[in-house]
Predict the structure of Shikimate kinase.
Amino acid sequence: MNKSAHADGLPMARAIPEKTADKDPFLVALGERVRTLRARRGLTRKALAGDAGVSERHVANLESGVGNASVLFLRQLAQALNCTLAEIVGDETTSSAEWLLIREILHGRDGEALTRARQALTELFAGSERDPDRRGRIALIGLRGAGKSTLGRMLADDLRVPFVELNRVIEQLAGCPPSEIYSLYGSGAYRRYELRALEAVVAEHPRAVIASPGGIVSDAATFNFLLTHCYTVWLQASPEEHMKRVVAQGDLRPMSGNTEAMDDLKRILAGRADFYAKADMSFDTSGKALADTYLQLRGRLAVQLSVE
């Protein structure tokens, strides 16, 4: 049999010879996924290359684990294979037939439908129903300067429950401030401490007011745990109000050496807004005196918790 021919008798471009041991494991896995996707769609390598508008040799090198493909090249392959880039690069939600079928069911659904699906899955895999003490724990979320600490303390005093700043618990567990965790061990380590701290607070306090770090929505597992075990309130404010309050507290870091601090703040808020919006309740604190803000917040909470 001609060595340049595929098992099905079709011509096959030769890949650059390379020892398997010298290949990058990620590129090897990437090539295997492309081969699998191509086989799933019944395409020859030549046909895939033609549909994608690339050379057959380029596809051959990629499939053999020696092709360092550009993002544009992978996008062309994804379009030709009628799949997402996630399927090619190896996102977990593309790793099995069940994952793909679940993705298809959820694809194109609106936000309300996706929320119902998430809540149903949470109840299915969390045991039965949500934590019975969930409404006894009020967790305040939002960016720095939203009023989580100030309003949280007032609310805890009024309700006669403990007030917990999650950053303090993280510091106790780690033995150093969160800023040092970041600088010494990176954001991944900080997120692990954040989840451990939240789990500890939930286990210890059936009733409490919790001020959470602004970035708690950055980790899906931690945020899901928060939504499951706490009644969450998004304290909102305009970017200008956030910045004004942080600086008024004596913290000049947002402005230090950063002439684009306001633009950065707006991007962070925009990037997190969809996650903050998953809270049970949202409350805008912009342009209000502290006393009025607290009374309105307390009144809204009393109504919401009484009807749920």
Notes: The first strand starts at residue 137 and ends at 141. Residues 1-20 have pLDDT under 50 and may be disordered. The domain at 115-307 is CATH 3.40.50.300 (Rossmann fold). The chain is about 55% helix and 5% strand.
